[in-house]
Records
---
Amino acid sequence: MHKLQSKHSRLKKDEIEKLVEKYNISVSQLPKISKKDPTLADGSFEIGDVVVIERKMDDGLQDYFRVVV
């Protein structure tokens, strides 16, 4: 991973349940990210996984969520 690239990690099943409950959504309503996306190139992500992307902002970290398609 390049040092300027945001950290991408997979959410565990219980974390996904908390996420969808917190925002009152389903996993299918999350924004999508392709399995072929270069940021997921290491091959450790599967279709249906939920990815959290941690981006550095001026005031700390901001989390973004995507479902792998």
---
Amino acid sequence: MKRLSFLLLASLALAAPISADSPSQLLSTLAVQRALNYLRATEPDTIDEQIAGCEIPAPSFDEATRAEHYRQRFTEVGLKNVRMDLEGNMIGERPGIKRVPTLVLAAHLDTVFPAGTDVRVRREGNMLKGPGIGDDCRGLAVILAVARAMNEAHIETRGTILFVADVGEEGLGNLRGVRHLLTEDLQDKPAAFITIDSSGFDIVNREIGSHRYRITFHGPGGHSFLAFGLPSAIHAIGRAIDKISRFKVPAQPKTTFTVGRVEGGTSVNSIARTAWMEVDLRSEGAEELARIDFDLKQAVQAALEEENAFWSSDQKLTVEVQPIGVRPVGKQDPHAPIVESVLAADATLGIQSTLKSGSTDAGVPVALGIPAIGLGGGGRWIGPHSLEESFDTTDSYLGTQRALLISLSIAGVK
């Protein structure tokens, strides 16, 4: 098959060349046809796997039990050198002619739901309902199906593919799994990275950056009546939240903010000695993210000074601003080869795809200069991150076929 070599510029860094096969050419080979037909015929099995994986709890920082499930499944579908790295990612290899990894195909293990959440999945016709059933139990099921189909069809690739069930994508996980994989675990950087972590047939080519902080006010504290006149950590938090709530942000590039958690004080009749809040700032633009980050710190400092100045006490509050998460802003041009490869695969399969922004594991490789995108796994998510999260399985087999065709296009078929 014709090999197409190209260089991709990502996050201002030059990436290694990627060799690819045309999706339409791939579709003309009997082995690929067998694999695609197999995926359509066995989509019920893929859905069963989606449910089975999802009913294993996996809060961020507690993904080990679900990871062990995928150790077994990776081994059963014929992946080699199946292992857990030091961060907790589960990795399986499908060796190609070239041992250097050409592609990482990933999905994340963790969910936003705390320990004790009922994660049982209910079926109602074409709908599956359960926390995490789409985000990202679908992605995990898809990458497993891709590996299984390649094995069943006896496909040999030119490049090695790493299948990765990674940790720490959600919330305060801060993309720690993929950070470790690409900066600590792999000696050779992959030529491309795909995470299956979106709804339907989305193509996430714009990574939303975020800065997250825990902001803690400290003070003397005291009895609400006897020590009245001391500055209050909770009052300072209130002043800060009031200022944050008045931020003006641009619609384009979309920029957002929220105070997601607040806690403090010891009792109803005490002046709060400590109080903290966690703040999430996001933007599609690096400059805009830096600007709202500056505004946040200014607002916090102003709130501190106002609370201290309001009272005549010599005892003052202090404040600590602690970063708890940083996700880079990133973008793949719509005409970048990795994006065009997906669009070509979608056209071959008759899929109407959509370019969009998102916050996925692909942000790390993009920042490292590795061509990377996030993809939907077919079907449709409804209400992700809610207890009523649902997944519509209608024609979901197209998502597994798509992931296979794109993976083979990048890795190349012998």
